Amino acid sequence: MFDRVLYVTSQKQDEKGFVMDLAREHNSTVLMTALITKTCRSRLPTESLTRSEVRREEEERRCWEDLYALEQEFKAAGIRSSVVVHESDLDGLLSVVTSTHCNLVVLAAGVLADRNYVIPEELLANLPCPIIVTQSG
């Protein structure tokens, strides 16, 4: 039923077990990505522009390292998986979903924190597949 699942992770990855079970049940390939939020791009009032850039680059590097480690964990569990390198925020999620031809999106609730845990109506109206928002614990 769900051949390709797009797993949009949060830093906590609390939903990892849910996604693994889902993938096993449906023999799915899991495509993993993370959204770079606006908070990662914003500069703190007390930091210089250079420090802000260094912080943003460190956060992005950690994000990709976490994704590749997660991919290895899924593969070690016998689940087909791949990292989708697509830098985007929540507004660009539709583009990621359509370009990867996914049948399901699993979105960690933590990704929605900057938007008061609300998915944009335009995104919901245009998604070509179901979306599951997992509760971070």
Write the layout of secondary structure elements.
Layout: E1 4-9, H1 16-26, E2 29-34, H2 38-41, H3 49-76, E3 81-83, H4 93-100, E4 104-108, H5 121-126, E5 131-134
Parallel strand pairs: 1-2, 1-4, 2-3, 4-5
What do these coordinates show?
With 137 residues, the protein is an alpha/beta fold. The protein has a single domain (4-134), classed as 3-Layer(aba) Sandwich (Rossmann fold), CATH 3.40.50. It has helices at 16-26, 38-41, 49-76, 93-100, 121-126; strands at residues 4-9, 29-34, 81-83, 104-108, 131-134. A 5-stranded parallel sheet has the order 3-2-1-4-5, with helices on one face. Helix 5 (121-126) links the parallel strand 4 and strand 5 (131-134). The chain starts with a strand and ends with a strand. The mean pLDDT is 84.
Q: Structural class of the secondary elements?
A: alpha/beta
> CATH superfamily, please?
HUPs
General shape: globular
Uncertain residue ranges: none
- The number of distinct helices, counting runs of at least 4 residues, comes to 5
Average per-residue pLDDT, rounded, comes to: 84
What's the structural domain tally? 1
Range of helix content: 40-55%
Helices and strands, in order, run as EHEHHEHEHE
CATH topology: Rossmann fold
Q: Taking Cα atoms only, what radius of gyration do you get, to the nearest Å? A: 15 Å
Distance between the termini: 27 Å
Give me the side-by-side strand order of the main sheet: 3-2-1-4-5
Number of DSSP E strands: 5
Assess the beta-strand content as a share of residues: 15-25%
CATH top-level class: Alpha Beta
Biggest sheet architecture:
5 strands, parallel
